[in-house]
Design a protein that fits this description.
The chain has 9 helices and 11 strands. It has about 250 residues and is of the alpha/beta class. The protein is globular and about 50 Å long. About 45% of the residues are buried. Bound molecules: 6-phosphogluconic acid.
Amino acid sequence: MKTLTRGELMVVEDKDAFAEAGARLFAEAADMAGGRFVAGLAGGSTPKALYERLAYEPWRSAIRWGKADLVLGDERFVAPDDAKSNARMIREALVDHLVTKPRLHAVPFDKLTVSEAATEYEAELKALYGAAKLDPARPFFDLCLLGMGEDGHTASLLPGQPELLDERERWVLPVTKGRPEARVTLTFPVLESAGLVVFLVSGAGKRDMLDRVLSGADRDVPAARFAPNGRLVWLADKDAAGRWAG
Ligand code: 6PG
């Protein structure tokens, strides 16, 4: 594992090793949490194989799923059974295969506007946390998994939208431009309130952006602005790591 000025870089050989390393980090964080375990889950395609890995041995029985609360870092504002739904992807890859079920906190959708859904989800997260204000000494997440887009976005915190990126009070915001469908996203304050943040970056398409973020050449894209309270790990396969793999 390489140590950078911003976090730690873990480079693995390929997609199989990537899923295994991600599952191991997840299980270690769950074990460290002891009792209740609150994990933020990334959407998109990268984490799917990691979630599938957690659904089978040895990881399935290594984690006390009945003590786990799974929270979405962001969600496409679509019906729960829509193929674009991150909650559906997580159910199909992980939760449906578990005997003891974790609590999956899906973003509400039915009969709501995207703004109402964001407000309701924020209330649910505050109830889960047990307070309306984040305490730096008590992270919201034990573990927060995040993806990164080729443009440097993370969750649905998109470049060029300061109303999302500069928000320091709200925990959850609606996103109504920049994507084909509306989104609901957690904001920096709550995503950074984590004992461990793991960015999951896989594939050659992410190589340039990851290089710009790790080298400090680009400090403005959302993923580069990330300053978590706790430990930060960049998990990358060799295709994404490029020159950083050496
Ligand atoms: C989403 C994700 C998003 C994702 C990145 C990377 O809902 O799409 O939360 O932030 O993590 O876009 O997506 P891929 O993993 O598909 O490359």
